[in-house]
């Protein structure tokens, strides 16, 4: 093939067959090609021409396949005119050539299209140079049946720009757009199959302090809606996040979900975000980013919402306390039932012989637990335990044993006592010190998170040290007190010794009692050394007494 071929879009039918459209520069045309579920092309022609008109703007076209896979609709523009074409699921034109939607009397761009199971479709586009509109932009829309016959007049959506459309199997549709009023925000409106509005426009983004742009919407057959967009530059811990991709789910029934970050890489400017949602309501987002894999542009995706569900939370506190009728002692492990909101005792320290003052804990697969202590103590089975050591509790038989002898691996000073502990997916220990220390060729401060990878555990401990998360690089103002690593993913959860609300950088506040989450920018590198830090959960808002300080944390994923 001569020239270049760009801007591919794919539609996948329920039976696994799929249709690919793309722009062919040699003939200024949009091509379509159908494939079997195994990827075998249907027919010898690599390009079934979608359009007969020349001079198509390759960046200004869109394709959508119906939920049942039997119909495809395409919209394109040459910047002065907007055209639509109806295709079968195999890419064959329906009822002749494309038809003109609008043209001649204005500038038109950014078209989008959606189609239902009968082949009826809705097209939206952006009209420029409209007097009285912010930036001169007007989002327009028009309905068509499968034979490309207009179903009513074109109608104005909003005096704004960058519109997209999504449709369910019955023909009900949603139009989403970016509205500018000082800062840009994303709005959407539902419509019935006959084109009449189904309720008022509603806000999509929840963070209104930043500008939002580039919305893209997807709907499944049942009407579950998923919208992605780009959010303006954000500063967290003094590190810029340039236009992160955001997402939000709007189920057909029930409340909408919260917005969340889809992309976590600190890239220059993600491009071309597109949304999809399967029949089970699980979202998919894809986009293009620069440098995420260590090279040039690459395509990336996120399936499902990258946050943990409402799993139960385990924590311990630095002092005795009371919540209603529940009394607990330091060393006890409390369980918070999410989303039920009830507190209970998960591990009673006195019942299990843990007489020392616990600094943190971690749960091993199978139920055994690891502990670190704030002060030296003698424990049954383990003997004298120092605050630089890690001990193991046998859940089945009871009793303790030495898991990591700190003195064997260069933890000997008081400032090298441990105050945070987690287990990573590979079995290594993630730790933090009460002060500064030097071990295995690295130097760590109390804000830092370090890794110990054991080659042998027990009384004769051996292994290697490495840096995981340098706290000063994130302007962390306090000591890291507790950790939990999501061994099923890449995230790291931690708590720091804030005794009040702390303001970090220019616009980010961390209330006391907050568990924070580190989402690595470079998960492929196997390190947390650079990550997006956000707020996960606040213990005091969940009922923990205001003066209680957390010193242990675990999330019960899969419990």
Record field, number of beta strands: 49
Termini separation = 55 Å
Query: Runs with pLDDT <50, length 5+?
Result: 235-240
Secondary structure: helix percent: under 10%
Q: Which fold name corresponds to the CATH topology of the largest domain? A: Hemopexin
Major sheet summary line: 4 strands, antiparallel
Number of domains: 3
Major beta sheet, strand line-up: 1-2-3-4
What is the CATH class of the largest domain? Answer: Mainly Beta
Q: Would you give an account of this structure?
A:
There is one protein chain. The model is unreliable at 235-240 (pLDDT under 50). A four-stranded antiparallel sheet has the order 1-2-3-4, with no helix packed on it. It is elongated and about 85 Å long. Helices cover 0% and strands 48% of the residues. The chain folds into three domains: 1-168, no CATH class; 204-306, no CATH class; 313-555, Hemopexin. The protein is mostly beta strands.
């Amino acid at each position: 093939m001569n020239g270049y071929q760009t801007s591919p879009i794919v539609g996948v039918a329920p039976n696994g067959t799929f249709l690919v459209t793309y722009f062919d520069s040699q003939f200024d045309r949009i091509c379509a090609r159908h494939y079997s579920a195994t990827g075998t092309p249907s027919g010898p022609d690599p390009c079934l021409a979608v359009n007969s008109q020349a001079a198509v703007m390759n960046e200004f076209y869109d394709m959508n396949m119906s939920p049942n896979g039997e119909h495809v609709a395409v919209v394109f523009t040459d910047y002065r005119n907007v055209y639509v074409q109806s295709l079968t699921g195999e890419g064959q034109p329906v009822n002749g050539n494309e038809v003109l939607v609008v043209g001649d009397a204005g500038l038109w761009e950014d078209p989008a299209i959606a189609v239902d199971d009968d082949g009826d479709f809705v097209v939206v586009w952006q009209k420029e140079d409209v007097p009285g509109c912010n930036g001169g932009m007007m989002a327009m829309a028009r309905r068509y049946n499968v034979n490309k016959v207009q179903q009513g007049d074109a109608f104005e959506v909003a005096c704004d720009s960058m519109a997209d459309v999504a449709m369910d199997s019955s023909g009900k549709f949603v139009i989403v757009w970016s509205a500018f009023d000082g800062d840009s925000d994303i709005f959407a409106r539902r419509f019935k199959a006959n084109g009449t509005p189904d309720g008022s426009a509603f806000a999509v983004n929840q963070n209104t302090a930043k500008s939002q742009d580039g919305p893209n919407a997807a709907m499944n057959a049942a009407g579950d809606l998923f919208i992605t967009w780009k959010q303006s530059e954000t500063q967290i811990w003094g590190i810029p996040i340039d236009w992160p991709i955001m997402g939000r789910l709007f189920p057909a029934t029930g409340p909408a979900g919260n917005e969340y970050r889809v992309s976590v890489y600190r890239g220059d400017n993600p491009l071309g975000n597109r949304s999809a949602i399967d029949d089970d309501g699980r979202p998919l987002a894809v986009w293009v980013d620069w440098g995420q894999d260590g090279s040039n542009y690459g395509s990336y995706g996120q399936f499902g919402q990258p946050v943990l569900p409402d799993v139960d939370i385990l924590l311990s506190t630095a002092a005795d306390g009371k919540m209603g009728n529940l009394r607990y002692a330091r060393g006890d492990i409390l369980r918070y039932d999410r989303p039920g909101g009830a507190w209970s005792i998960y591990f009673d320290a006195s019942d299990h012989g843990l007489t020392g003052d616990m600094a943190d804990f971690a749960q091993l697969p199978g139920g055994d637990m690891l502990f670190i202590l704030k002060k030296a103590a003698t424990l049954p089975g383990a003997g004298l335990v120092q605050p630089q050591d890690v001990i193991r509790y046998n859940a089945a038989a009871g009793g303790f044993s030495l898991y990591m002898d700190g003195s064997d691996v260069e933890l000997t000073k008081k400032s090298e006592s441990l105050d945070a502990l987690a287990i990573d997916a590979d079995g290594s220990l993630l730790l933090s010190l009460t002060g500064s220390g030097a071990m295995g060729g690295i130097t760590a401060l109390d804000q830092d998170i370090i890794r110990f990878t054991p080659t042998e555990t027990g009384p004769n401990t051996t292994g290697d040290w490495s840096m995981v998360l340098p706290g000063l690089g994130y302007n962390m103002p306090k000591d890291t007190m507790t950790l939990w690593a999501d061994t099923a993913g890449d995230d790291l959860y931690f708590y720091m010794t804030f005794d009040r609300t702390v303001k970090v950088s220019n616009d980010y506040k961390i209330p006391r009692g907050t568990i924070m989450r580190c989402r690595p920018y470079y998960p492929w590198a196997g390190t947390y050394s650079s990550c997006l830090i956000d707020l996960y959960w606040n213990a005091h808002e969940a009922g923990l007494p205001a003066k209680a300080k957390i010193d242990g944390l675990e999330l019960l994923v899969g419990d």
